[in-house]
Write a structure and sequence with these properties.
Elements: E1 9-13, H1 18-29, E2 33-38, H2 41-53, E3 58-62, H3 68-82, E4 87-90, H4 101-128, E5 132-137, H5 150-170, E6 175-182, H6 191-198, H7 200-208, H8 218-229, E7 240-243
Parallel strand pairs: 1-2, 1-4, 2-3, 4-5, 5-6, 6-7
Helix pairs in contact: 1-2, 1-8, 3-4, 4-5, 6-7
GO molecular function: oxidoreductase activity
Pfam families: adh_short_C2
Protein name: SDR family oxidoreductase
Length: about 250
């Protein structure tokens, strides 16, 4: 199945590393113009260079996605730079972790409210384009209870539920909304690569829990993202697709 995004304008909020980076590169490789934001300039510059090398138009600027005003400024700038918005990917996470004030604050500010705010800022642009798609990145942690990362699990569950509501609310505007719930994804500088050396007991326990026998790759989430945002998924909205090698089946 050939998926083309030629002529499409894609915004990836949290697109400089890991899953977000792979999604941005996937869209660029399929012909889209892409805007990315993140807090770190170095990661943005590196990813922007990789997108440009694919021959795609790229817009990349720093943005603190915990900041309401900064999100509005970024989305408006992305729309101006790309000439509009067809697709929004909400990928950023505060990785709040446990049942702590700090964990809850990070998760609510970034995982939940950045998704709400970026969506609301982008919706008028997507509607003007004739309709498009929003994709929210959740986690398999949001599918059940978690003693280790209670706040993270709760906010990711909220993203899944909000995806259902967005799918219903935005159908009249011809905007499809779906989510992906990735399992444990390993990439350079990411949580699981870090845990491999800093917390090998946890890493090995999680590794052994995955029926497919390995950690996931960011590109595998990106492939699912491109499908859900493509015309091939034109009758799919309000759904969450699990991409985890069977990790959540145990």
């Amino acid at each position: 199945m050939q998926i083309s995004f030629k002529g499409k304008r894609v915004v990836v909020a949290g697109g400089s590393r890991g899953i977000g980076r792979s999604i941005a590169l996937g869209f660029a490789g399929a012909g889209a113009s892409v805007s990315i934001c993140a807090r770190g300039q170095a990661g943005l510059d590196a990813t922007a260079g990789d997108i440009s090398a694919l021959g795609a138009k790229v817009h990349a600027v720093p943005c603190d996605l915990a900041d309401k005003e900064a999100i509005a400024v970024y989305v408006a700038a992305a729309a101006a730079a790309l000439g509009g918005i067809d697709i929004l990917v909400n990928n950023a996470s505060g990785f709040g972790g446990g049942d702590t004030e700090d964990g809850w604050r990070k998760g609510l500010d970034i995982d939940v409210m950045a998704t709400v705010r970026a969506s609301n800022a982008a919706i008028p642009h997507i509607e003007r384009s004739g309709g498009g798609a929003i994709l929210n990145i959740s986690s398999i942690s949001g599918l059940g209870a978690s003693a280790r990362s209670a706040s993270y699990a709760a906010v990711k569950a909220a993203v899944i539920n909000y995806t259902l509501s967005q799918g219903l609310m935005l159908a009249p505007k011809k905007i499809r909304v779906n989510a992906i719930a990735p399992g444990s994804i390993e990439f350079p500088g990411g949580l699981w690569e870090t845990n491999k050396t800093s917390n090998p007991q946890l890493y090995n326990a999680v590794f052994k829990s995955i029926p497919w026998g390995r950690m996931g790759k960011p590109e595998e989430v990106a492939n699912a993202a491109l499908f859900l945002c493509s015309d091939q998924a034109s009758w799919i909205t309000g759904q969450t697709l699990t991409v985890d090698g069977g990790q959540s089946l145990g």
